[in-house]
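Supplementary Note 2. Why include the ligand at all?

Several targets in our set were suspected to adopt different conformations when bound, so apo predictions alone were not considered sufficient. For every target with a known small-molecule partner we therefore ran a joint prediction. The input for copper (II) ion is given below.
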Amino acid sequence: MEVKKSVANNILIAIVILVLIVGGFFLFSNKPESTPNGNVNAVSTSGDKQIIDLTAKGGYSPSVITAEANKETILRVSTNSTFDCSSAFTIPKLGINKMLPASGKTEFPIAAQAPGTEIDGTCSMGMYSFKIKFS
Ligand SMILES: [Cu+2]
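The joint prediction is reproduced in token form.
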């Protein structure tokens, strides 16, 4: 009798452990949705302005950005040991033509744009490009 009770106890403990493992599996497998695919939103808001973060190094990233229309914008371009021609930064439509520092952040104010406006930027040779869509 004594032995049987012990076996029953062990089975009970085993069942409890199993339930905990299975429960834990479901708990952890129910993760939140993964980050949005590829098109990471580079736009954040600061006060009544929006800030677009662009990285210039071997091209521009992200290459397509969707921003809010009718809102003052700051385009913040980050370089980090950028020794390629993406540091020769131009936005012809806005008359921007600037040699960026090899490392640092350069801010370009952009006036509020009408919905549907697209602004293209390129390196001075037109090899690398990016686009900002205002909607
Ligand atoms: Cu270039």
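The domain at 43-134 is CATH 2.60.40.420 (Immunoglobulin-like). The chain has a mean pLDDT of 83. Comparable summaries for the other entries are listed in the accompanying table.
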